[in-house]
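S.,

Sequence below, as promised.
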Amino acid sequence: MKTRKNLSIAIIVLLSILTGCGIYTEISVSSDASLDFSKYKTFAWLPDDIDTATSPYNNEIIRNNLKNYFGRNFSERGFSVNLDTPDVLLQIVIENKKKEAVYPIYPRTNYYCSYYYCSSYYSPYPYNYYYHHYNNFYCDNKGECTKKTTYVEGSITLNVIDRKQHKIIWSGTAKGDIYDDAYINRDIHPAVLRIMKKFPVKSIERKTTSKPDVVFNH
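The prediction came back faster than expected:
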């Protein structure tokens, strides 16, 4: 009983770690390395496409929250809003794709239960011995079983556009769960932090609060 309890605790801890680490599986950035980004001082947002408010994963509330998150980060980097002649234009692109994942269901040795009272495979429903009748659970003629799940992979892309040159000078993308209420309702969405860490212009607050170099007098 103690061993089974310890195993349950270990599984819970592992799932927590995987959930926490798997929010964003990929961060990608493209940048014009020939530019001096410090010359840009003002920004404004490009208007959204008229069709962006038709999806539960891409609606006006989500987009406005993301604009607030990004706008705050640009302000911390010394940028100010200019609706007339901004140096750069910001654009948010949200994409969602339905995907399938197939996981192996590994056999286990039944040291702590009899054959009739213990399933031979790990399952998210360990006490449902008829789980194999669900469509997302499959066993081949060799006895190897898999579970198939469907999920939505989302991505946030921030495009920074030089208004005068009409070209994208920087772009950052984060893939992951961008619409979870646990993250949408935070002060700063974690995807924004991950993207903005890659931006060439760093936070002014971070610069001023950095520790000075230590000088040793001889």
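Residues 3-22, 109-134, 213-218 have pLDDT under 50 and may be disordered.

Coffee later?
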